Amino acid sequence: MEDQHHPHHHFPRRKRLERQLDSVILHFDCFYASVIENETPSLKNLPLAVQQKQIVVTCNYEARRRGLYKLQLIKDAKRICPEVVIVLGEDLTRFRDASKELYAFLKSFSWNGKVDRLGFDEVRFWLVSSVFMDISDIVDYNFSLLNHNDLANSFFCLSKDDPTLGFTFDAALVAGGTYPQAMNKTGKPAICSIRSAPSDCNDFLLRLHLGSHYARHVRQLLETQKGYTCTVGVSTNKLLSKLVGNLHKPNGQTTLLPPYDVSDTNTVVVDNVTSFVDGHEVGKIPGIGFKLAQKLRTHILGRPSELDLSAKENLVLRDERDVLVRDVRTFPGMGADVLERLLGGPGTPHGIGTRVWNLLNGFDDTEVGLAREVPKQISIEDSYIRLDTYDELLKELHMLARSLLNRMHTDLLNDDDDDDDDVDETPNESVLDAAAQDPKSTTKKRWMAFPKTIRLSTRPRPPQNPDGSRNRSFARISRSAAMPNFVFSLRDSTDSLADRLVSETLIPLFRRLHPEKSGWNLSLVNVAATNMVDAASDTAKGGVGRNIAKMFKRQDDVLRQWRVEEEDEIDLGEDAVRIEGEILRDADRFEIPDEVMKDVEAKPFPLVNTEEDVEQGGGGGSALWESEDEDMPDDDTFHCPQCGATLPLFAIEAHNRWHEQH
DNA sequence: GTGCGACAG
DNA sequence: ATTTCTGTCGCAC
């Protein structure tokens, strides 16, 4: 939620905090236990737990009813509920797919495109997808259509172009639940009537009503068309809509009712935003994580909270009362400055005091829809009880490399409809297996961004203590290198690319990380693609000129590297082969001078292995451990930002001409 | 640019 | 008695 920096930060200096009431924000929570239930409807009413490693990462409501919970050990879960259905959730691709589908679906209900997954990532806190939608424009438009004399017979218009598209509703009523909960005589939650609200809130309240009806409409379609149930919060900013949505779940929605501001009315001592946020434990506020909450609790209690001292069982927690937002907010002297001193410091983001103070007061000016289209980094990791043999390591690195490549494909490749371009394109030339995904369209995949760096991180198992007990350290160590260009190839199979990545890049990195040939024992391995560089953004139409400029700049860079290496006479032989390997693969696509083609050889596939390498221990056996240069020289090839092709330097001009002609 | 830690979910 | 898999940012060098 915090990760968006918006360029326009010219908020007029407000006298005091003043609520911004002109937006209507929806927050959708979709529970992925329902993804599995969708796939296998027979599971619907059974207790269902998703397992990762030794723990339950999430479970459905039936399982919760029987006492299962998140982060519970599988062993305990089975003891408490022997009939629980366990689903392996190590492979997140199904959930990512579902998340993407959900996101696309919700986006189709937005007019302004302000739809936002929490952060960039689709899957946030374990198999729950969280999406914000700013529907201020839709609400504004429909507000202007209201007949204030006959709210009960309103029509919600779903399209500015087609006034017949929409649904009828009662604008005097809110759809779904509310905070505070309205009660009728029977004691059951009742529908809140606008006529009972303070009159000066009417317009604002009406807009929230509109938002709630739109939310209900979208939820209904999501369920009937996609089969997902979700929970929705309706309010004026991300913080509030996310928090308030929690009040009716699963499969419900909640609207945070006015007054949002005490100045709205003289009859109310505290506004609903304040009373609502006040009741939350500090750590429950999105944006206040474990560490911040810990510092806040310590400050308020005057001692470390026992909640924070190693969660050492409920006995200790007996008398411990939660520290609520109210406790912090009303603490003597509390304010942004005090918080800045308390929470700030080396290594913490600037302005944290103000941000937290705002959150405590229900303010959140982060906007919806400014999420990046591509992540800054993609990483894959796995943890291990024990990973200390070279064999296993190779296997794991290969798995991680394959996953990383797959993620790069799903997250960094654009589907690009090329119906006006490439008229004489042969089907074969189309890259990747676009056909497998969408056989009908001539869809081409194109890289939206290129990670320039690859990083390998490990978490060595904490050193076995002399005194016998375990030491808790989760420190990671890492090394990085240039991302080899071949990973962007869209023709080679992921498996062979992964092989190459492991042997040519990851193993050398690992060697830098753990120079000892044995003796290491890892509890975690992570492979990351970082240092993301956007491909030219507007290649679709008329962006070619700019791209050519970029390409020449890049060509210059690469040529300079080349020259340096040439002068230094660094082991050119092998690289020359690699370059020619690329030439060979690209020769069928681009015109390449015959004199260059004539002495092309296939690149020998790098051999990776083996047990001997590790077990020979002493001075010398492993070829892998003996290579001279630490850094893998970058492939001296060029990848075209327009089509993703990898091609040799000298082919750039011809390639540009090719693009100009097509 | 590299490596690490803090932090959030 | 936990530690699961990401992603972002800022600091020191």
Task: Please describe what this structure looks like.
One of its GO terms (biological process) is error-free translesion synthesis. This is DNA/RNA polymerase. GO terms for molecular function: damaged DNA binding; DNA-directed DNA polymerase activity. The protein has 662 residues and is an alpha+beta fold. It has three domains: 235 residues, Alpha-Beta Plaits (2-Layer Sandwich); 79 residues, no CATH class; 284 residues, Dna Ligase, domain 1 (2-Layer Sandwich). 34% of the residues lie in helices and 17% in strands. The chain contains 21 helices and 20 strands. The strands form six sheets. Strands 6-7-1-11-12-10 form a six-stranded mixed beta sheet. Helix 12 crosses helix 13 and helix 14 crosses helix 16. The longest helix is centred in the N-terminal third of the chain and has 25 residues. It is globular and about 80 Å long. The relative contact order is 0.08. The N terminus is likely disordered. The chain binds a DNA duplex (9 and 13 nucleotides) through helix 9, strand 13, strand 16, strand 17 and strand 18.
